[in-house]
UniProtKB/TrEMBL annotation:
Basic and acidic residues bias spans: 102-122
Comp. bias regions, Low complexity: 42-57
Region (Disordered): 32-58, 84-122
InterPro entries associated with the record: CHAT_dom
Domain CHAT: 120-330
Protein name in the entry: CHAT domain-containing protein
Pfam families: CHAT
Record organism: Mesorhizobium australicum (strain HAMBI 3006 / LMG 24608 / WSM2073)
Length: 365
C-alpha cells in the first residue's frame, strides 16, 4: 500500500471513529437532559407534599438524579474532548495527504520529463541508423500497455442489524463493509499472477464523487471498480465532511455523464455492491461492459468475487471467462446465492469473451 493509500485509510478510520464518538456524546447529553428534568419534577413533588417522609424521599431522589446528570455531563465532556482531538488528527492527515499528493505529482512530472528525454534520444538514434544503413535499422516493438484500474471504495455508514437474544433483550449493532481487506486480498492475488507487472491498481478509500472525477482525469483508467453500497440507481459515496460523515447518493446517470465528459472513458465498470445494476444501463452510453449485482450480496461474497475476477484478468483471461471463474469461486466458497447475482451488461455487438484487458508479450519462437 502506498503512503497516500495508507494515509487515506487512516483518515477513513478517524472518520468512522468520529461517528461513533458523536453517537456516544448524544447518548450522554440525552441522559443529562432526562436526569435534570426528572430531578426538577422530584423537587416540585416535594414542594407540593405535606408529608415529611415523602418530602425527604423526593429530595433524596432529586439529589441522586443531580448526581447522575453530573456524572453523565463529565462523560460527555470527555467524549467532546476526544472529538476535538479526532478533528485535529483528521486535519493533520488531510494535510499529510495533500503534501504526499503534491510530492507524487512532482515525481510524476520528473518521470515524464525523463521519459521525454529518453524518447528524444531514441528518436535521434533511430534517425541516425536510417541515414547510415536504412536496411539494418529496426524500431523496437512497443511494450504492452499496463492495465490501469481505479479501485474506488466508500463505506460511509454501517449496515444496521437488530436482533433479539434468548433472554429477550434487543441488540442493535452496526456492521461496516471490509473494503480495505477486499483491496488487500485483490492486491495479494495480483502479486502472484502471470502478468502482475502489467497492472496498476490505484485505490481511492473513503471516496467522494470529487475523488472519482479527479481519479478519472489523473489516472485515465481502463477499469473503474466501485465497492460499497448502492441504493435505487445510485452509489453511496462519502460526503467528505470532517465532523459528520454521511452517505451521499450519486446517481449512476451522473457517473455516466462524467465518463462521457472524458476523452478516454474506461472499457469496463465493475459495481461490487448490492442491487448495483439498477439503472446501470445509462453507463453503456460510454462504457462497453458493466459487471454488477442483481440483488443483495454479502460482504464475503463481494470479496471472493473481486479476488477471483481480477486474478483471472491478471492471468490474461477475457472478461467473460474471468466472470465465469468468479462465479465458480463463489460456488467453491459455498456462496451459491451470491454466485447467481453476478451479471453483466454490454453494448450491442460486444462479446465478453473477446474483451481481453491484459495482453502479455508473445514469446519468441
Amino acid at each position: 500500500m502506498s503512503r497516500i493509500d495508507s494515509l487515506r485509510s487512516e483518515l477513513a478510520r478517524l472518520k468512522q471513529s468520529e461517528g461513533r464518538l458523536r453517537k456516544e456524546l448524544a447518548g450522554h447529553e440525552a441522559t443529562v437532559a432526562v436526569a435534570r428534568k426528572d430531578a426538577g419534577s422530584k423537587r416540585q413533588s416535594a414542594a407540593r407534599s405535606r408529608n415529611a417522609s415523602s418530602i425527604n424521599s423526593y429530595l433524596r431522589s432529586a439529589v441522586s438524579l443531580d448526581h447522575k446528570a453530573t456524572e453523565s455531563g463529565k462523560k460527555a465532556a470527555a467524549v467532546a474532548e476526544k472529538i476535538g482531538r479526532n478533528a485535529k488528527d483528521q486535519a493533520s492527515k488531510q494535510a499529510a495527504i495533500a503534501s504526499a499528493e503534491e510530492d507524487l505529482r512532482k515525481e510524476r512530472e520528473r518521470a515524464d520529463k525523463k521519459r521525454r528525454r529518453e524518447e528524444l534520444t531514441h528518436a535521434r538514434q533511430v534517425h541516425g541508423l536510417l541515414q547510415s544503413a536504412p536496411h539494418l535499422a529496426r524500431i523496437p516493438e512497443p511494450k504492452p500497455e499496463r492495465l490501469r484500474v481505479l479501485y474506488v471504495t466508500a463505506n460511509p455508514e454501517a449496515t444496521e442489524r437488530i436482533y433479539q437474544r434468548d433472554d429477550g433483550s434487543v441488540v442493535e449493532e452496526g456492521r461496516w463493509l471490509q473494503t480495505d481487506r477486499e483491496v488487500r486480498d485483490v492486491r495479494k492475488a495480483l502479486k502472484s499472477a502471470l502478468h502482475r507487472d502489467l497492472i496498476d491498481l490505484e485505490h481511492l478509500p473513503a471516496a467522494t464523487f470529487a475523488d472519482l472525477i479527479d481519479g478519472t482525469n489523473e489516472r485515465r483508467p481502463h477499469v473503474i471498480h466501485f465497492s460499497g453500497h448502492a441504493a435505487e440507481g445510485a452509489l453511496l459515496f462519502d460526503d467528505g465532511l470532517v465532523h459528520s460523515t454521511q452517505a451521499r447518493p450519486i446517481p449512476l446517470q451522473w457517473i455516466a455523464d462524467l465518463l462521457a465528459a472524458t476523452t478516454t472513458p474506461p472499457i469496463l465498470v465493475v459495481l461490487n455492491a448490492c442491487d448495483s445494476l439498477v439503472g446501470a444501463e445509462a453507463l453503456l452510453e460510454t462504457v462497453a461492459v458493466i459487471i454488477g449485482m442483481r440483488g443483495e450480496v454479502g460482504d464475503i461474497g463481494a470479496r471472493v468475487f473481486a479476488v477471483r475476477f481480477y486474478a483471472a484478468i491478471a492471468e490474461g483471461q477475457p472478461a467473460g471467462m474471468a466472470l465465469q471463474q468468479a462465479r465458480l469461486g463463489l460456488k467453491d466458497a459455498l456462496l451459491l446465492d451470491d454466485a447467481s447475482l453476478l451479471e453483466s451488461l454490454s453494448r450491442s455487438g460486444t462479446d465478453l469473451d473477446q474483451v481481453v484487458l491484459v495482453k502479455g508479450q508473445t514469446p519468441a519462437a
